[in-house]
Write a structure and sequence with these properties.
CATH architecture of the largest domain: 3-Layer(aba) Sandwich
Number of helices: 11
Number of strands: 11
Shape: rod-shaped
Structural class: alpha/beta
Order of helices and strands: HHHHEEHEHEHEEEHEHEHEEH
Number of domains: 3
């Protein structure tokens, strides 16, 4: 396969020459061609001379006071039309890629937005843009930012504002971190609790890198409480453990909405809870915003507005 570099060296054709050549061929004269492509007649003559010099052959013949294509010119005209058509297709493809929402949009999210907020948005996005597909990576917020930085995902939803200026971020939802227990737990029967009521209880918490875990640990530390803990790797495990009476859970309210509605879990009313925090949508500042990214950002903005 001939490289573009070799083509540039061996055939340094200018598209302006090709366009002018076809204008002369189609109109049958330099003056008419000049008017049709809005050039001066001397400029048209110069383009044709330069093209003929480049190709090493005469493209036109002067017969009976008229200009006609030579045999070489007829062959050149056929190929020139293909060249210009290819250029138009090239331009149209680029423009379409910047206007049409299609292809794969790679999303990353921390556990709470990834499990409970993003799937409905992804479904709506794909219904609005049938030529698009979404993919989703779920990890903790630190892992999502790492994937963004490595350009492995396009947009990320995380539980804290990115700490450096490499990222653009905006709050898109308000989260509430709550304490909860199985509906049969003695504390679930009390309408109001004090922080000291948690003494002697085991706290079911997420892994160390979880933003939810960090907020909960900070609250306990501020109240000088040092309860026994059980570290669990996912919200589902925390919920099941709490429902089984193994301790007091701490998660996003989004994560336990269904279980609370079904009276399997009960939110505990403790001073300082719920802990409210924004969830952030982030992307690399240097990232080129594709039509899919722009459309998803607009979708999120519309939902945030409501």
């Amino acid at each position: 396969m001939t490289s573009i570099k070799l083509l540039d060296k061996d055939l340094p054709l200018k598209l302006d020459w090709v366009r002018t050549f076809l204008a002369v061929a189609d109109t049958g004269g330099f003056t008419k061609a000049a008017k049709s492509i809005h050039l001066s007649q001397p400029a048209v003559s110069t383009h044709i001379k330069e093209l003929e010099a480049n190709l090493g052959t005469r493209l036109f013949e002067h017969l009976g006071g008229r200009i006609r294509l030579s045999r070489a010119g007829e062959a050149a005209a056929r190929e020139a039309r293909k060249v210009l058509e290819t250029v138009r297709s090239f331009r149209d493809a680029v423009v379409e890629s910047e206007e049409t929402v299609k292809g794969t949009l790679a999303l990353g999210a921390s556990t709470t937005p990834g499990n409970y907020l993003l799937p409905p948005l992804m479904g709506r996005f794909e219904r609005l843009h049938p030529q698009s597909r979404t993919s989703l990576f779920i990890g903790n917020s630190t892992e999502v930012l790492g994937r963004l930085r490595a350009n492995e995902v396009d947009l990320g939803m995380v539980g804290f504002a990115p700490p450096d200026s490499d990222f653009v971020h905006q709050a898109f939802a308000q989260d509430e971190i709550v304490l909860f227990a199985g509906s049969g737990h003695p504390l679930a029967r009390k309408r109001r609790l004090k922080a000291s009521d948690l003494e002697g209880e085991r706290i079911l918490r997420r892994e160390a890198d979880s933003a939810t875990r960090g907020l909960g640990d900070a609250w306990f530390s501020s109240h000088e409480l040092h309860p026994a803990t059980m570290e669990l790797g996912s919200p589902e495990t925390v919920k099941r453990a709490a429902a089984a009476g193994l301790g007091i859970g701490i998660l996003s309210r989004f994560a336990i909405e269904w279980e609370v509605h079904e009276k399997r879990l009960a939110v505990l009313h403790v001073p300082g809870f719920p802990i409210r925090r924004p969830l952030y949508l982030a992307y690399l500042r240097k990232k080129h915003l594709t039509p899919a990214m722009k459309s998803f950002l607009k979708l999120v903005e519309g939902i945030r507005g409501r």
